[in-house]
Write a structure and sequence with these properties.
Pfam families: Lipoprotein_9
Subcellular location: Membrane
Shape: elongated
Number of domains: 2
Largest sheet: 3 strands, parallel
CATH class of the largest domain: Alpha Beta
Membrane topology: Lipid-anchor
CATH topology of the largest domain: D-Maltodextrin-Binding Protein, domain 2
Order of helices and strands: HEHEHEHH
Family: Belongs to the NlpA lipoprotein family.
Strand order of the largest sheet: 2-1-3
Strand content: 5-15%
Main location: membrane
Length: 157
């Protein structure tokens, strides 16, 4: 967490320094509700006279579009495979990775089933709608004993 905050601060300072005027406001798009971490980023950035605005997105497909369209200055929510997939699907995207971010582990959740062993054959399971995270979800379902994947199945699918 400290490493992430440090990297974000460095990126913020560089971004603010590259601005065309003295306005040191930076808008970061995030796709999580981890407000505690982002409040710390805002607090640390303030020490460098940088005003950070956090814009929350509930759809993982929107932060990159907002960044490419100039609606935000940077985003922090994705792994490299997701960004690569996005750039292939959206030709002309001019986004580059500056650093890494924290990746939340995937989980299996239910409001009815309390034990994964109680999941019945044929039960419906929802997985992410992007290929880079679908593979992660399928690996998780296999690790939980719910499905069996081909031997050569990798994180790329």
């Amino acid at each position: 967490m400290k490493r992430l905050i440090g990297l974000v601060i460095v990126a913020l300072v560089l971004l603010a320094a590259c601005g065309s005027n003295n306005d040191k406001k930076v808008t970061i798009g995030v796709a999580s509700n981890d407000t505690k971490a982002w409040e710390k980023v805002k607090e640390l950035a303030k020490k460098h006279d940088i005003d950070v605005e956090i814009k929350h997105f509930s759809d993982y497909n929107l932060p990159n579009k907002a960044l490419n369209d100039g609606d935000i200055d940077m985003n922090a929510f994705q792994h490299f495979a997701f960004l690569d997939q996005y750039k292939k699907a959206h030709k002309g995207t001019k986004i580059s990775a500056l650093s890494t971010t924290v990746l939340a582990p995937l989980g299996i959740y239910s409001d009815k089933i309390k034990d994964v062993k109680k999941v019945k054959d044929g039960a419906k399971v929802v997985i992410p709608n992007d290929a880079s995270n679908q593979a992660r979800a399928l690996k998780l379902l296999e690790a939980a004993g719910l499905i069996k994947l081909k031997k050569d199945f990798g994180l790329a699918g």
